[in-house]
Amino acid sequence: MKLLAADIGNTNLTLGLFDEGELLGSWRATTDTTATDDEIAVLVDQLLGLDGHALAEVDAVAIASVVPPLTTTFARMIRARTGQAPLVVDARSLEGILEIEIDRPAEAGADRLANALAARIEFGGPAIVIDLGTSTNFDLVSAEGAYIGGAIAPGLGLSLEALVGSASKLPRIELRRPPNAIGSNTVHAMQSGTVLGYIGLVSGLLTALRGELIERSPSTARVTVVATGGHTYEPWLADVPGIDAVEPDLTLRGIRYAWDGMRAPSSGNPEPSSRSRTA
């Protein structure tokens, strides 16, 4: 049984192909909200084809999307090309699989729910997932394994775009750690403010969230912090203290766990793959 997991984000479309629960590969492309059914079909086949796979070999599809127009287009393409109805991950479909203890469960992003589910299964609670993407999402799992909310901050790229777009004399720069916090030129000063400032934002929020999560957990509990998302490959991530694991494919595995749970909702506890790590 081969499952295609699709994480449709505002910046990137990420695909993962699973065979009996094991991730065979993952691929990433830029999100195009104007893409037609045929264009998405070509893109998916091209991405899978990079490693010798094809859409025709897929047995099932699950989607977690925060881009509603593309959710519809992607699902329609899957039905037309494979004859299958893809499973869509959201708060309603996760009933009985993941406890969602927030004010308005329907408003929770599918990627955030997938991250929480994967963290609960692979690491247990309490846990914090930091998703470093277009936005920077902090998603918290209680000691009992429920998703209890978190925080949303601007992503690093988004912050830089806002800065450059609003200040005409500031150039576009490479997002890397500057040699010193005190920038001796405009580029280094911007790198200090954006990259070092971003590290401070992530560290500060993580400290605050961890403290509140500890207060809500048994005295013997230890909070596990997992980083995921497009910026997990950046070398400056090592400068953020308190991260226990870096899992770039955590969201895709969360989608796979959701699919497992939706197929057998009575179990409510999909099995982690052998590749999963536990704290």
Question: How would the global form be characterised?
Answer: globular
The low-confidence parts are 275-279
| Beta-strand fraction estimate | 15-25%
How many alpha or pi helices? 6
Radius of gyration: 19 Å
Number of strands: 10
| Biggest beta sheet summary | 5 strands, mixed
Report the span from N to C terminus.
Answer: 29 Å
* Rounded mean pLDDT score: 90
- Overall helicity: 25-40%
- CATH homologous superfamily classification of the largest domain: ATPase, nucleotide binding domain
Which architecture of the largest domain per CATH?
2-Layer Sandwich
CATH classification, class level of the largest domain: Alpha Beta
CATH topology (fold) name of the largest domain: Nucleotidyltransferase, domain 5
Class from helix and strand fractions: alpha/beta
Write up this protein.
- The chain contains six helices and ten strands; from the N terminus they run E-E-E-H-E-H-E-H-E-E-E-H-H-E-E-H.
- It is 35% helix and 22% strand.
- The protein has helices spanning 37-49, 68-82, 110-123, 156-166, 186-215, 250-263; strands at residues 2-8, 12-19, 22-30, 60-65, 87-88, 127-132, 135-141, 147-154, 224-228, 245-246.
- Mean pLDDT is 90; it is low at 275-279.
- A hairpin with a 2-residue loop joins strand 2 (12-19) and strand 3 (22-30).
- The protein has two domains: 2-88, 2-Layer Sandwich (Nucleotidyltransferase, domain 5), CATH 3.30.420.40; 105-253, Nucleotidyltransferase, domain 5 (2-Layer Sandwich), CATH 3.30.420.40.
- The two termini are 29 Å apart.
- It has 279 residues and is an alpha/beta fold.
